[in-house]
Amino acid sequence: MADDPYAALGVSRTATEAELKKAYRKIAKADHPDLTDDKAAHDRFKAASAAYDLLKDPDQRARFDRGEIDAQGQERAQRRYYRDFSEAQGNPYRGEANYGDFSDVFADLFGDGGAAGGRGGFGQGWQSGGRGGARSFDMRGQDHRYTLEVDFLTAARGGTTRITLPDGNVLDVTIPAGTRDGQTIRLRGKGGAGMGNGAAGDALLSVTVADDPDWRRDGDDVVTTLPISLDEAVLGAKVEADTLDGPVMLTVPAGASSGRKLRLRGRGLKGADGRRGDHYVELRVAMPPVVDDELAEFIRGWRAKNAYDPRADRERGGR
Amino acid sequence: MSGLTSGPTTGSMTRAELQRQIPGLTEARLAELIAAGIVRPVHSNSGDRFREIDAARLQLALDLEDAFELHDEALELVLSLIDQLNGARGDMRAMLGALAEEPPETRARLRGLIRELRVVTVRR
User: How is A292-314 classified by DSSP, letter by letter?
Assistant: First the structure.
């Protein structure tokens, strides 16, 4: 939550209790995660509800105003919104979906058994319960959602990572090579327990790929920067560069400038079509730590005969 | 085979645990919401048990009451619409997920069919 709960609600510090409530309700109406898909709205709602939780109690508010407590630590345990449950198949509160003429197509694709892997699906006794309360259940367990942050190279190369679930269970998760930020990994049967004869739900891991100082992704391509010395830039060299498949010897052409990109074909990430993108190595000429007299003297002599203007083809003025 | 075994109560909470999770929920309001069929706890030998979905639904119901002053019938209607929408959303997501596994040609073919069904071309 924001450090300033008043700001999160958009009210002044002198707001009355009624004004606080009004501000909170206004945000809840517009930004409740069950009512909108907008991620920014979800954040606003989260901040506003934490702020309101803190400020609605006059004693707590007074303590906060006196600086005795801060706005942190007010967040409730991560709340799971109804949407998480009501989107899942087998929501007991959802009536039977009726797609008219296509009902049999729907049942074919989503119905019980078959390809769905034995999930307790629609029409398996749930709807008979009606409003009178639930009766007997074979319900597939809930899917549990987690967010998993992996480093760039693990995501790109693939690997395993160990996670501890809130219930204390430890899982080894295989990260497939070429996993992108925002992808979801489904671990079948690792979610909530099923009810009755229902199968367990899945664990859904939403993957966040951490930024890496050395590696960048551009579509299916990866880009790294390779520092080279002045002499390597002038004379050319063979230099070792790290790729997703391990180090390779790279030929730096003589006279390479900073920013020049060398392409390693097929060394990028695996794309949707199964083919791998490319790896671009961007050269960066690094000057020696100290420019000594010898070098300076040599360059002075060199400049006298060979001066060149690297900005010659730039437009004048403007920039 | 199925029926009321010990199964339904695993991973669910008692009334007291539920009220700890949702501080704003009074005993009286909970009883009303159950009576209205807005939340349907699992019946078990040890009394009503509430699943996570019930807790999330109750919390949403309280939020809707609070923010929009929705009560009883209106609340039930809104929740029913949310169930329908989210259910359809989940179906759609599953369908898209399944399609994503299909080769590009299948998708191209479906794209053509969907256009024919959804896009009306007006000829002059």
Answer: -HHHHHHHHHHHHHH---TTTTS
Assess B20–A contact: CB distance below 8 Å, yes or no: no
Whether A87 and B93 lie within 8 Å, measured CB to CB = yes
* ipTM tops the 0.85 cut: no
- Residue whose token pair is 């967040």: A75
Using the predicted structure, report yes or no on whether residue A185 has a pLDDT greater than 90.
no
Cβ–Cβ under 8 Å, residues A213 and A224:
no
B64: distance to nearest CA of chain A, Å?
Answer: 8
CA B19 – CA B26 distance, rounded (Å):
8
Q: Which CATH number fits domain B10-118: 3.30.230.10, 3.40.50.300, 1.10.1660.10, 3.30.450.20?
A: 1.10.1660.10
Please tell me the least confidently modeled range out of A37-41, A60-64, A80-84, A205-209: A205-209
Whole-angstrom distance, CA of residue B76 vs CA of residue B79: 5
Stretch (H or E) spanning A74: none
Model-level pTM? 0.48
| Neighbouring residues of B102: CB distance < 8 A, sequence distance ≥ 6 | none
CATH of domain A215-306: 2.60.260.20
Distance from CA of A299 to the nearest CA of B (A): 58
Residue A132 pLDDT > 90: no
Helix (H) or strand (E) holding A17: helix A17-31
Picking from B8, B53, B91, the nearest residue to A142 by CB comes out as B53
Of the listed ranges A257-261, A315-319, B37-41, the least confidently predicted one is: A315-319
> Is A50 strand, coil or helix?
helix
Identify the closest residue of chain A to B90 by CA–CA distance.
Answer: A87
Q: Which helix (H) or strand (E) holds A71?
A: none
